[in-house]
Amino acid sequence: MTVTDQSQQPTATKRRSAATDKKKSSGRMMILGFLSPTLLILIFMVAYPIISLIDYSFYNFSALNPHEGYKWAGLDNYTYLLSDKALWQRFIFTGKFVFVCVSLQMIIGIFVGYQLQKKFKGRDVIFTLLMMPMMLSPVVVGFLWRYMLNSEWGVVNYLISSVGLDKVSWLSQTTPALFAAAAADTWMWTPFIILLATAAFRGIPDTIYEAAEVDGASAAYKFFRLTLPMSAPVLFIALILRLIDSFKQYDLFFALTGGGPGSSTETVSFAVAKTAFNYFYTGEASALAVILLFIIIGLSMILVRHLNKMGDKY
Amino acid sequence: MKISTRLLSTTSALAMVLLGTSAQAETELTFVWHAGTCADALVDIAKDYPDKSVKIVPALVPYGPEWHNKIASEFAIQGDGFDFAMWDSQSTAEFAGGGHAVKLNDIFASSDVLSADLFPAASISQYGEYPDNSGDFYGLPMNQDAYGMMYRSDLFEDPAEMAAFKEKYGRELTVPQTYQEAAEVAEFFTRPDEGLYGWGQMGGREYDFATTASNSFLWSFGGELYNPETYEVQGYLNSPASIDGVQAYVDMFKFAPPGSGSWGFDEVNAAFQQGQLAMAMQWFYFNGSNADPSVNKFADGTSFGILPGAVGRDGLFRRQFSVGGQGMGINKYSKKLPELTKFMEWYFQPEQQKRYAAVCQTGLKSVLESDDWQSLNSYNAQFSTALQYLNDYWHLPQYPVLLDQLQEEISNAITGTKTVEEALTDAAKRHERTLERAGYEITRSDSTPEVPDQEITPVGTKEIIKVN
Question: Is the pTM for the entire model greater than 0.80?
Answer without folding.
Answer: yes
